Amino acid sequence: MLSQRFLLLRSAASFTRRSFCTGGALKQGKQGKAPDMIEGNPQFHVSNVRNRLREIVGASTNWSDHQQAMAERVSLSSMLAKSQNELPAKRMKDSYLEVHLPLGSEPQLREKYLTHHNTVRFGRILEDLDSLAVLISYSHTYNSELKRSPLSIVTALVDKIDMRQHVIYPDCDIKFTGHVTWVGKSSIEAKIHMSQYRDGAYASVLDATFVMVARDPGNKRAAFVNPLTPEGPEEERLLQEGEANKSRRVELSTASLLKVAPTQDERTVVHGLFLNTLDTNTVSFRSRILPPNSVWMEDAKLKGLEICHPQERNIFNRIFGGFLMRKAYELGWANACSYGGCRPSLVAVDDILFQKPVEIGSLLMLSSQVCYTQGTYVQVRVHSEVFDPLTRQHNTTNIFHFTFTSDRDVPNIMPKTYGESMLYLDGKRHFDQTVAC
Ligand SMILES: CCCCCCCCCCCCCC(=O)SCCNC(=O)CCNC(=O)[C@H](O)C(C)(C)COP(=O)(O)OP(=O)(O)OC[C@H]1O[C@@H](n2cnc3c(N)ncnc32)[C@H](O)[C@@H]1OP(=O)(O)O
């Protein structure tokens, strides 16, 4: 435990914005295998991340002990700050973390990450990113006077993941670097950069932005997090970007099609699609014809079910957010694959919302829908809900948005009902936000 804490602190000391963006300067290594030690940048192995999180919150390693561990955690409530002013301000470097996934150097690790097509399972990367975002948030809120953190830090949102390249190689070392870039009262924005070591240098793979929320030890109410003090113009910029991200999220949620009518331009799009599907022979509003090279939305769905076993729990005895993302991603990918008739590549992950925790033992129903297409692009939405067989109630827990691209043009997706048209517009909004601009 001590040595891992040492690693966290050392990595903070070696923080540079440059290493966050580019992976920093490296000594020459073999193809796919990064050098063992980078001067001033100690390595933190990915398999230590979960253990470290367990230690920080005092989670049980056995499911049979989880109730006792939970009861012990609830007793930490008295350690919570009564206001944010009580907590010392932290710097961005205090939460800086560098984590290595040595797929090139440790072949035994590869199995877990390998697809049938000899690429890396992106769902596994989503799991690692989620665990890392949590660890970064705990590093920000770290209090050396406490043995355990009283905070339960959960993933509220994956704001976006921008892919810088489509292929992730299964035999090259991966490095994640990240830190907190903005804080609210109880929310934390963390950015993570992932790069891969190839041909003697680290190349960018993706940039991810997460929003985490701190809760009390019982995960019932919001809890204050340390303020953040930027140092220098670059950090000022990141902080302002975080503030702008928050305003953008509020605007987006206010303009949600679940709350307000589509814009004039959007209404024109929907009416154009409707006119395109009218049967000119019958001149009736009701008889609809599928245009050539198109697929009705109702025929572009794929569903799945997960029984949420204790093995997939997080440190707070709920289902791990990364697992939910992996399952949703894999279903979305399979749907895009069957829709386009070829293996799609991921372009962006956007606005994954964790609305409600998923309890252990839940029946989790995942439902994916191709909701927008353009040229080679397929926009997929995955909705997940828990179903209680006793009360027969359904409750939405998550909504995921993925953008894929194929190596050829895909058929046009065609909404038939008003509800499907809203899904289409929502997909278009996500597509325009991530790809078109
Ligand atoms: C045990 C051994 C196992 C080991 C396994 C190891 C795994 C390791 C991995 C461990 C990994 C563990 C990780 C996991 O696996 S976490 C599991 C996945 N995540 C969840 O289950 C979370 C589900 N969602 C919720 O519980 C609620 O919706 C939350 C708590 C998120 C918000 O609830 P609510 O809305 O009622 O909260 P509030 O009104 O009091 O607001 C509080 C703050 O939250 C901000 N906010 C809210 N929503 C959003 C949003 N969408 N975008 C941006 N911000 C948002 C809001 O602005 C405010 O900020 P501020 O103004 O205070 O700053």
CATH superfamily of the largest domain: Hotdog Thioesterase
| Oligomeric state, counting identical vs distinct chains | single chain
Shape: globular
Record the strand order, biggest sheet: 1-3-4-5-2-8-11-10-9-7
Q: Please tally the β strands and state the result.
A: 12
List bound small molecules.
tetradecanoyl-COA
CATH class membership of the largest domain: Alpha Beta
Q: What structural category arises from helix and sheet content?
A: alpha+beta
Unreliable stretches? 1-31, 35-42
Q: What is the second-level CATH architecture of the largest domain?
A: Roll
**Percentage of helical residues?**
25-40%
Describe the structure.
Its main location: mitochondrion. InterPro entries: HOTDOG_ACOT (IPR033120), HotDog_dom_sf (IPR029069). This protein has 437 residues and is α+β, with helices and mostly antiparallel strands. It folds into 2 domains: 210 residues, Thiol Ester Dehydrase, Chain A (Roll); 173 residues, Thiol Ester Dehydrase, Chain A. It is globular and about 80 Å long. It starts with a helix and ends with a helix. The structure holds tetradecanoyl-COA.
